[in-house]
Each structure stands twice: as structure tokens, then as C-alpha cells.
Amino acid sequence: MAKITLVDQIKSKDEEAFEILYDEFHKIVFYVIYQIVKDSEIAKDLVQETFFTVYNKIEQFDGGNIKYWILQIAKNLAINYYNRTIVKEQQVIKNEEIVEMVSSKQNKGLGKYDELLDKHFEKEEKDLIVYHVVFGYSYKEIAEFFNENPKTIGNKCRRLVGILKSLVKEG
Fold this sequence. Notes:
By secondary structure, the protein is mainly α. The chain is built from nine helices and no strands.
């Protein structure tokens, strides 16, 4: 008898299986989207849109790692939103005061650590730290997402976490 997977259950429109998938991945999906749009309310909306897309396009999933398929959908939706928003803003914004006001808008992310990470790390470095420390992904999982060697990711993460620990002790 063949083993029925979570994806197979979702393909047969099993709502409980879909809830399990949502519960497992919605936090990392939010993080990926938030890093692009920098607005928690918009990120929440795009998380919902991501899982709506997953549910409606699950038949297109051809195997492999479901997490990375979902994260790619989330990333694409966030980039598309961001690009549409930028185009609209460029058409509407006409003076530097408005540009300055929009760019100084306060958002909530990882709380007090968000500013620390933004100040001392590049975006990719911040992502590596968050994927490993906050979400607990292994070096191998992170390496798959970034399409890099797990040993390289491991070395980068250890170095970055060491720097972060020093910064937290100083602060």
C-alpha cells in the first residue's frame, strides 16, 4: 500500500492537512515576505495570498521540497507587490518631503534585534541568522534555499552568530 503524503492529502482538498501545512510554514513565510515589503499588515495579507495560491495550485507541485516551493511563491508575490507599489509611488510622489516621510516610516519586525541586525549585517547575512537562529533551520536546509554548499552556509552562520553574540553583549 502506498504511503499517502501531506501533499497528496492537500491535493485531494483535505482541509485538515492544509491547516497542518499552514501551521508549519506560516511564520517563515511571513518573515520572507516582511523582509521584502517591510510592512507587517501587508506581509500578513501576502501570507494569506501565498497559502491561497498554494491551495489552488497544489496540483502544479511536482515533488521535491514543499517548503521551498511555498517560499518561492511567497517571495514572488512579495516582489510583485513591492514592484507594483514602487511604480505607483513613483507616479504619485512629487516632492522630497513626502519621500522622506515614507522612508522613515516605523515597522515592526524582530523587535529590538531588527535594528541591530539591519545596522550591522547585510540582508543575506541577516536572513542566514534568522533562518538558523529564529526558525531553527539546519545548514543543509538553508543551503538548499540559497543554492549553496552546506559547509559554506555553516561557516557563514557560525561566524555571523559569533558576531551577533558579541554585539548583544556590548549592547
